[in-house]
Amino acid sequence: MAMANLARRKGYSLLSSETLRYSFSLRSRGFASGSEENDVVILGGGPGGYVAAIKAAQLGFKTTCIEKRGALGGTCLNVGCIPSKALLHSSHMYHEAKHSFANHGIKVSNVEIDLAAMMGQKDKAVSNLTRGIEGLFKKNKVTYVKGYGKFVSPSEISVDTIDGENTVVKGKHIIIATGSDVKSLPGVTIDEKKIVSSTGALALSEIPKKLVVIGAGYIGLEMGSVWGRIGSEVTVVEFASEIVPTMDAEIRKQFQRSLEKQGMKFKLKTKVVGVDTSGDGVKLTVEPSAGGEQSIIEADVVLVSAGRTPFTSGLNLDKIGVETDKLGRILVNERFSTNVSGVYAIGDVIPGPMLAHKAEEDGVACVEYLAGKVGHVDYDKVPGVVYTNPEVASVGKTEEQVKETGVAYRVGKFPFMANSRAKAIDNAEGLVKIIAEKETDKILGVHIMAPNAGELIHEAAIALQYDASSEDIARVCHAHPTMSEAVKEAAMATYDKPIHI
Fold first, then answer.
1. Which of 99, 104, 458, 480 is flagged as catalytic?
2. pLDDT recorded at residue 35
């Protein structure tokens, strides 16, 4: 009932009673052969695909998931979110031992990097998690087909399996969840040795003395941070005038200063116009984005991190008539339906943030619609996190976006320098910033720069989801001493006055 009421508030309607009766009929879900018809077939086993598959099975659908990699979890788990966070944590531990332990009375000597062991820990985390998803498939009786799938009709997928066979998987409903791929740059060939994507940057066998990162977005800054902490000289080349252009400007400026203090160098408003890999390293020819005098940057390794693009190649979408936009994204309605009956799409292949957690929410909502339930994902309230140190997390609108709407607003800020827990652990860099509508005090956006901002942001995400005010957060009792108190104090600063500053 609560979900139905939420749907009505958001302007969505329930599916027909006929669909509802169909969806909730129970089915036996054994490990069927590919030729038997499924209720739901998911093409792609990443965060969106595997979550959709599990949820579909839980709702009573006979479900098959097709994944070309041979390991579930997609880019995120195998060569993205999970391995990068493992390396971020390991490199942070090394940096702390090298530079901060002495401040806490802990004396260590001869701190060294064992890169092979660090990579081994990362690989172990990945393999354990992929096996864990396979276990969830077995538990929920999801059929798992390993291979590259492509449409032969709106209800049939031809799969070239990884063991050299071919099978056809049939489904009443087929969900495209094939994710995204690295966006290439003209004239820059990725060989995963000297010029690497994020995949190659997660598997370097040596610490590069000089690393150049092309692109100052989330992934580039995170991977630059990993290698910078353990000894690389990192230079970030960015075409735009700012790093992470989607970030709140005030937070962005403080974030860049923090990264610069850590040794990261930035060349903004700069473009790469030439690449020479004929020597031992790489020579990049760069010039101002607007044109001008050229210069050379030398590097041992270059990381191309210019964004991602929807992965739809080889799926035969044109054969069945699925519409895409000029960016290659699949067009869907609010129920994730494409223009082709029975074919749906979720995650990175459709418009919206290219984030693993957004894809998961898409997957759940899509199959809930198929089951006659109400699914909903508000892309304006999806949190984003940069997992550097400090982390930067945000949800809702930036101050610049609020200004563009013309709505009168208030801003409340609270620095971690005034937070007792942050001071006690000697890690007090950053702040919390809350933007709220002036007349109603409704929270419009929250931005946090702090060591664990990615954990702190979810209080704000809940607040935005339920249209809470800054006073609502301020009047919730927060445990002391915690970093979360900074969120409470920023909320107090938004509608009234903080206590501790």
1. 480
2. 53
**Residue 150 structure tokens:** 């492509």
| Burial bucket for residue 45 (CB in 10 Å: 0-12, 13-18, 19+) | buried
Q: Are 213 and 265 in contact (CB under 8 A)?
A: no
Host H or E run for residue 63: strand 63-67
Mean pLDDT on 291-311:
97
Query: Mean pLDDT, to the nearest integer, of 168-183?
Result: 97
Note the pTM of the prediction, 2 decimals. 0.91
User: For residue 13, what pLDDT is reported?
Assistant: 35
376 is catalytic: no
Token couple for 322: 């699925």
Average pLDDT for 191-209: 97
Reading the block at residue 149, the tokens are: 């799938």
Mean pLDDT across the stretch 259-279? Answer: 97
Helices (H) and strands (E) in the chain — how many of each?
16, 21
Q: What is the pLDDT of residues 376-389, one digit of tens each?
A: 899 999 999 999 99
In whole angstroms, what is the distance from residue 52 CA to residue 63 CA? 10
Output phi, psi for 482, to 5 deg: -140, 160
Do 446 and 432 contact (CB within 8 A), yes or no? yes
Q: Where are the alpha helices (DSSP H) in 142-217?
A: 198-201
- Write down the pLDDT at residue 9: 37
What is the spatial distance between Cα 376 and Cα 368, in angstroms, rounded to a whole number? 9
- Average pLDDT (342-361) is 98
Kindly report, residue by residue over 49-83, the tens digit of the pLDDT: 999 999 999 999 999 999 999 999 999 999 999 99
Q: DSSP H helical segments within 67-171, as ranges?
A: 74-79, 81-99, 115-140
Instruction: Please name every residue paired with 42 in a beta bridge, in sequence order, or none if there are none.
Output: 65, 175
Report d(CA 422, CA 499) in Å as an integer: 16
Angle between helix 115-140 and helix 47-58 axes, rounded to 10 deg: 30
Length of the chain: 501
Lowest mean pLDDT of 19-28, 133-142, 185-194, 232-241, name the range: 19-28
Beta bridge partners, 160, equal: 148, 166
Residue 497, burial from CB neighbour count under 10 angstroms (0-12, 13-18, 19+): exposed
Two tokens at 40? 């739901």
Alpha helices in 186-272 (DSSP H): 198-201, 218-229, 249-261
Two tokens at 469? 């005010």
Closest of 252, 376, 358, 248 to residue 308, by C-alpha: 358
8 Å CB contact between 490 and 412 = yes
E strands present in 177-209: 180-182, 195-196
Q: Is the dihedral of CA 456, 79, 41, 11 positive or negative?
A: positive
